[in-house]
Amino acid sequence: MRFKYMREMIAVLIILIAVMALYMTFVPPNCDYYNCFESRMAACKPAVFINEESEASWKYQIIGTTDKTCSIDVTLLSAKDADLGMRDYEGLDMRCYYPFGITGHPEKNLAACHGPLKEGLQSIVIEKLYKYIVVNIGEINDELLI
Fold first, then answer.
1. Is 1 helix (H, G, I), strand (E, B) or coil?
2. Does residue 145 register a pLDDT over 80?
């Protein structure tokens, strides 16, 4: 009598194991600390990390290998410092491509990235450079004349 449902129990157990294997294969682990993300980035293994900085919150997701590089999605979750002008770009993302073994904060190397967030961040940099030049035009002119 106790073996009556043995086949059904084995089938359920196999299904549970298969679901767990699929989950572990396709859902990247969350890294709670930057060193976890950094080690997974160096090996280009899927992971998700929320980087809480003083000026913004960033979400990094390592996608995996793309054309012999490590592909990482970067999303600006929230801009905390209003002076930086990043609030308009909250929710936008960009894809960054790094050589294997290279680690770092992806949003700091815009040359390795593509997407609407990169364009927004570049426009902020250009605007700040323009303001700096306008404010310091006299000093710049004096240095050019020397």
1. coil
2. no
